[in-house]
Amino acid sequence: MTAQSTQVKEDVWIPTSCGGCYGQCGIKAHRVDGVIVALEGNPETPAGSGRICAKGTAQLHTLYDRHRLNYPVKRTNPKKGVHEDPKWERISWEEAMTTIVDKLKNMKDRRGCYFQATTVQTSEIRFAVPAFMRAFGFKNYWVSGGGLWCGNGAHFMNGITHAAWSIIPDWNYNNYTLYFGCSKGHGAGHAALQSAQWVADARVRGMKAVVFDPYLSTQASKAEEWVPIRVGTDAAAVLGMINVMLNELNTWDADYLRWKTNAPYLIKEDGKYVRDPETNKPLVWDLGDNRAKPFDFYEMDPFVGPDLALLGSYTVNGVQCQPSFQILKDHVKENYPLEKVEQITSVPISTLRRVAKEFAENAQIGSTITIKGKKFPLRPSAAIFFRGSQGHVNSGWNCLAIDLMNHVVGAADVPGGAMGHGPPVSHGHPDTGKPETIPYACPDGLMIVKGWVYDHKPYPLREPHAPTRLDLQDMFPSSIYNAFTIMSPDWDKYREQFKLDYEPEIMINFGSNSVMTMANAHDITENFLKKFNFIFSFNIYQNEFTEAVADIVLPDASFMERYTPCVTFPSTFCHPTGMDEWVWQIRQPLVEPMFERRDFNDVMLDLADRLGIKDKYFQVINDLIPVRYGGEMSEKYRLKEGEDYTWTDVCDRVLKDRLGDTKGLEALKKTGLEKWPTKPEEMYWRWHVPVRVPIYFEFFIDGGQKASKLLAEYGGENLLDLRFYTGLVNWFPCPSHTEKRPEYELWAFCWRPSFHTQSSSQNNPWLDEISINDPFVYLMQINEDFGKKKGLKDNDWVWVENSVGKKIKGPVKLVQGLHPEHLAVAGCHGHWARGTPIAKGKGQFFDDLIQVGIEYTDPLTQGTDACVKVKIYKMKEGEAR
Amino acid sequence: MTRHGFVIDLKRCYGCYSCSVACKAANHTPQGVDWAKCVSAEIGTYPSALRQMLPLVCQQCAEPACMDVCPTGATQQDENGIVTVDPDLCMGCKTCMMACPYGARQTVSTFETYFPDAEGELDPYEAYCLEQWELKNGFGLATKCDYCKDRIADGKDPACVEACPAKARTFGDLDDPESEISILIRRNAGFQLNPEFGTDPSCYYLPPR
């Protein structure tokens, strides 16, 4: 080695945003002579404030992983299916693009195109996916894991009640958190690192967490108390506790309910609002004048309003009616007595009663706090949920029920309470007023979210109409993803029955591994993916999806090799919620894409160009920017017709328009971010935005009836269980709860290790190394007493079989940290793709136990049930492991 | 004098392994070496069972058992109490590994790539890690955590401290009664692991509850 070659020529730190999960924390990368040698947290940003998790640091290996895809390849084995060897053959980019363009140009009907994308690269899917869809002319779209791993129920419901993607406690002030099936603050991507610091601070200062979960999860281990609960029964437990609060403790935040919810709205016998004959506005009962008035008859100062009735029975224009709060109070009393709730959930009556009391007391109803000179209610109790609560037939109602705890005590978007996350109210950068997002009210006074990521807002509900999408989503009022149609063996029949006049033809896949993230691999592949004539896919690895069904796979740049104009807005999962600064963070390449890898954004532009739809593509981006980043594009930076822009041009214009003329891409590349102060009325917005939210869901009644009528026109009324479309929160059982055959002894469910991201991280050697060292990740856990009764010991291999005979196998671990009626598996493991040899064969593929069909589908959100009743038995000697 | 020490707050730690991976990256430890190991265990019985993570580092004992037994003088203690191995003097006899009651020392005899199924040469990052490892440590020799001595010299925190999402780790001076770690230990009943080993560790833990 000569002296010259050891001399370091380059030594720089580059600020960017992590893409190891959807948390998008700010990081910086150390580049020495062209090689990235370190990734660390960026102390300049509130989104992580200098910290980095295991997944983040481990991205070093993802960048350089020698199993990465470096060249375009085509399938030479025409046979498709799970476990097939595609027999890849390297091709040139030109051959790949020519083939793709040729296939797209020769489609029978462009509507038969289908875009499938990953949830992990959340910011990358903001533009290229919808721009191409609208410019090319199709509506079919699926987010990988949507409906199963992702949040059908959670996003939808939080959108209705918090104008946000998720909820997290305001740990700065929170004293008491109820967790249901979520790990926020313990590694989950919801502002992952910021939340972890806040919850640790809160724990040290004495915040108490009580975790309802069948599994002794990370968050349960850290909590004051773990309450083991039967899987999928969260709503029953919560409604029992609401019953205690409303009918035993007589505790509720009357001011909040009167002025910030529809609790005072008068409801008649048919469950609908009593409306003003003149204005059609819902009526409330003014106890001052003792008569009914439109809900918005008064001008309200913060904290002071008229005395509206929450309880009692009234007669308005000869119609008997009651405030919705009275109806809710009676409903939980009649239908959720603690004896019944204990039977459903297995949680002792005494525990339910005590926790309800603690939650109510900790809410400190009536207390206030002054922050930066402004007075706010202080409600330091919060009930939060996510994936665990919503992975059930009762997905939507589970989420609404848990969140109702917060609304009963007024702990919603006020200091200490449950906060919309990311922050749904933003007044914008002081120089530009963008991004601006403020929720507004519908004519009935209920909140409508301003910006939203899905093409349809959670409220008002979609008007069900004749289907235009291959999954029939348009026929259902509150569906986000419909798996039960596309994955059914009857998909062809459904399309015929509902008179869809086109067929699935071409699928475009961006980064997703849907074979492992939508339910059992066989049904997805055979009933759905194999129906496409041609599939091309952008991936960084070959995975179970590409190997099963892709025809051409394009080597994508990783998040470390591309530009993204913004990762922290729309602030879905990543922007911290609290009084830290606002931050606009970009992503930039740390190194040029290696080998023949190309950035997805560039390739989609190339494709649009070759198809002659580039102008339209840019126009859609113009239209999308206000939806994504709040506020119209100025004339100066709008993408103009006839102009040719590169992806970096687009990024530059977005940045200058949102942040100011001097803050384009070149400027932001130096800092990686732009910050500005938060206002307390942005973060704690609830009493500063004139909207109400429902505690009674009157609009579901109409939504359900409309959908049912529409479905009936096609003879499909069996596809909607109208019992779910009521105004009142309920618990409905999953098929697993009604399985009575005695040999099905256990409920199986999956959990997520904090150091893995969906199905995308298992080939990382460092994350694999810690998974091997961890005692719980690669083994299936059963309760020790149950295991001993079955004659099982640690590392015995067993079969786990669901009610229709589908099986997974693996070694068991006998544990104390699991409800005895359950079996717990770490989700998204058990890979088998040739392209990810490190991940291959490690852990178990839980989703193979999941069935798809109308009986496993939440009628409200069309989410898929992910709890399964199983029998387990020891593998015989000599059976292949 | 300054005595470099660690406080690991088990109440803050939620067992995410960020320290382990940050250490691997900062110290370029090869496959099979994990200086910031985390040990997870289940305590108690259902339904009041607990799972607790115990994150480990070299305890940088004031009376290091590993140093006394080193036949070549490779193991040394610096003026701030950090115990190091001089790779030029270490002959790989592993006596120190047997002597350390905390299992802090590790060795691997040969380099194994993390990508055994991949074709071709090492990728630039793995090649860089290998070069760095050979420069500062080596194969067949005793290796251990040195509280990221080089980083400390640059005024930074050790890599595991800086990474920790829950801010469970604090680095500082045990000899200064007013240092953050001294105060944390005093106020929160900080304890050493197995003090009965008699080596007086410089790493303290704060109780999980």
Structure, described:
- The complex is a heterodimer of chains A (881) and B (209).
- With 881 residues, chain A is α/β, with parallel strands linked by helices.
- Chain A has a domain at 735-874: Barwin-like endoglucanases, CATH 2.40.40.20.
- Helices cover 28% and strands 17% of the residues of chain A.
- In chain A, the strands form ten sheets. A seven-stranded mixed sheet of chain A has the order 5-4-25-24-23-6-7, with helices on one face.
- In chain A, helix 9 packs across helix 13.
- The longest helix of chain A has 16 residues, at 614-629.
- The two termini of chain A are 49 Å apart.
- Chain B is an alpha+beta fold and 209 residues long.
- Chain B has a single domain, classed as Alpha-Beta Plaits (2-Layer Sandwich), CATH 3.30.70.20.
- Chain B has helices at 18-27, 65-69, 95-99, 124-136, 149-153, 159-163, 180-187; strands at 4-9, 38-43, 50-55, 75-77, 83-85, 169-173, 203-206.
- The longest helix of chain B has 13 residues, at 124-136.
- Chain B is globular and about 50 Å long.
- Chain B starts with a strand and ends with a strand.
- The model of chain B has no long low-confidence stretch (mean pLDDT 97).
- The interface between A and B is large, with 64 and 48 residues.
